[in-house]
Amino acid sequence: MRAAELKWTGELQTHCVDWKVGKLEYQDGTCWKKCLKGSEIDSQGATVTLVGDMVHDTDRTVNCPHGYTGEVKLRCDDGSLSIEEGVCWEKCSAKTIFAALTPPEFNGAASGPSPQVVKDMIHEEEKLFACPSGSTGSWKATCDHGSITAEGSCYYNPVIVTGNFGDWGELSCGSGMHVIGGGCHAKNSIFQSSRPSDDGTRWICGGFGAAKQIWAICSYMPVEIKEVDGGDWNEVSCGSGKVAIGGGCDAHDNPHKVQFMGSDGSSMDKFKCGGTGSPKATYAICAYDDGEYSMHKVGRDDWGSVSCEPGYTQIGGGCDAKSSPHVFEWNGPMTRYGWKCGGGSGGDQGSRRGAKDVWSTCHATRSMNNCKIETGVMYVGTSGDEEVGTVEVSSADECCLQCGENPSCEYFVFTKPNMCYLKKNWQWKEEHGLGENIIAGTRPEA
User: Fold this and answer.
1) What are phi and psi of 100, to 5 degrees?
2) What domain count does the chain have?
3) Spatial CA neighbour of 10 closest among 74, 55, 64, 71
4) Is 210 found in the same domain as 142?
5) pLDDT digits (tens, 9 = 90+) for 118-160
């Protein structure tokens, strides 16, 4: 009887009708079942377990179980457990968040870096995630009952290395990087080859016995190198969902000259190499197309350069020696933010000629407030720093927001840890010694 008694609560009134035989007769009262310890009830997938017994017609507020947030008020009614009010919401685990912030794979690896995620998020929590060192951008994530909605991106900042060589040279990226582009200056001559190595870790330039300066544009971003060996004009298509962010050319035979070298067309899905009378191998460096790549092309005389628009990072470039003698001696970076092409017949200073089209291939990276941003570069106005305001903020995302709220602001410069300079009348870019501690960007787009 003792075990049975523990399952019930309440009082009964009885009347003794025959004391000799111990006969009792019910008079009044009710026995109610308890809700027993260990009883379980579901709230949106969360199993809420009763820690101790509850008696009839009582309630108790308890916390939701591990992996969930919130609390529920439990009620016991004659042994039946119910939720009187409250809901359990599933948390978003750090693993789930990281997966949502990881970009699609390309060539067997994630196409970009992901922010560090160390904590779970609770229901309806919204959080900004900064991209890791060596990359630009940010992510915003919102937790909704265990599911993550995320927007944003991280993009590896390209690293340019350069070196001087004889008539042929190979420049390595090192540090586990591979080339996403490169360039060559055949001093007072023209070059025969400027291309990635077959394994994608070096940039090769050479030909015609002249000293060379070589640039390699390096990144941890996964790429795929495609090659076509054919006639004097070739193009290599990267295919659907891919973009030709760079490439190269090798003019095998006489006259060993290259007239056109670069991504072809506004879609940037092909890399083109050409020049009359010289069979060539053409190389395309293909990457995942995240929709933020573009080209910025201008017409120049025999020598010229071009930069990406504000908010765009230069990842490569190209040149078309469209006028006779259809050659160039320099096709490569002028700085980390400018591309240069030039040269003419014979190579001596007095005989350079031939109009060129020169272009930068560019990538935009956005802050969460929809400003396009660039790392390690100072934006400069018409007559120095045309400031329209200065404010202390904690991030480039906040600096972007401040620019959007100031009607005179056209672009901004954020310097870590907390200074935001609002500016107007952009004219040019300058490389800055602060490196990743400086971020410049455009006014937020509507």
Assistant:
1) -70, -25
2) 4
3) 55
4) no
5) 999 999 999 999 899 899 999 999 999 999 999 999 999 999 9
